[in-house]
């Protein structure tokens, strides 16, 4: 054959510059350490004891010290009515045999109302929901998500009072028409008739549903002061510059990456005034956690945000490219007219747009997010990686939120007609309770809002993608 085996001798050569290593041991000794011990004794000793006198503790109340005639007059005036009501309560049998069970376990989900305004056009979608502070009125924003160019879609703001004896499921109690698509709404936390909303054109508006002639009480207009793109979230927050907890400002976030704080005074001008500006920039995100290759000064479109219940300046903001960020209103600000970036920490991002985030009211560091990557994630504000990732396997997860009365219960809505409830106290195989629906749920940012009332029952409102069903 052409090839044969061959054995070749091994050739070796020594280095001409490296020398053989040698090892040498040496020893050394320090000088002897000298020590000396001595004892001393104090000459004079003294001991003193003291005892305080016993003082009987007395409690004083403002009511006991109040000897004004107005208080006496008030008590005498209401004494008869209070005593009569107490006697009436003793004779009533309304709650005989009723025992409150705070630890009752409810595993069933029932539909109480199906709301739809029949006069609306069939092409309108539910874009956002909000309960008022009394938990009785539900506001629904009707608009469109699939816009092409400028928004010319007619939209509506509708409200239903679900505490009425008779609820008209096919007609809203209040209807407000808008010329631009309404993207988000939010009730005032103290005034049950005041609603704020944001449109696709970037305009921010405030309405008072008790007014019959002109419901709109304030507007930002469209210009340099307002958003350049769609307003995706509106929130009433405590004024970060005020010590009073009853003073609120309006925060708005948009697809242009801007976060604006507005001052609203229902007794003064009808024009909203910007008091602070922020913008989410790509350069504020660590390079290893950036998703897109956009320039450092490029803004990131905001889809949703949620404030911490412990720190009124801290909030979580999520973006169109899947980013999840911890932000602060206390970020260094350069003054009015300048926009600063509020990002203080970046979390591991989703693999799709994040359309829902909710901070827990029972744990100051926990928050939950949902995304079109078909996952619901549980994060800790002190860790970049998620603590838990839930994959329902029911399509895109468009919204999620915590229960306002059960610390370990959260809900989510998917694009495959399912409303999901999870109890994190139990094992993974028993966590999920599913409520199937006849219509597609919650497209994009249509949110999941929970009503917190004086009872232990919990009500959840969700919206559908088609026909404006709530």
Polypeptide structure, described:
This protein has two helices and 26 strands. The chain is mainly beta and 470 residues long. A four-stranded antiparallel beta sheet has the order 1-2-3-4, with no helix packed on it. Strands 5-6-7-8 form a four-stranded antiparallel beta sheet, with no helix packed on it. Mean pLDDT is 80; it is low at 438-448 and 452-457. It has helices at residues 62-65, 69-91, and strands at 125-131, 137-143, 155-161, 174-178, 182-187, 194-199, 204-208, 216-219, 231-238, 248-254, 258-263, 273-279, 302-307, 314-319, 324-328, 343-347, 354-359, 366-371, 376-380, 388-390, 397-402, 409-414, 418-423, 432-436, 449-451, 459-461. The relative contact order is 0.09. A hairpin with a 4-residue loop joins strand 18 and strand 19.
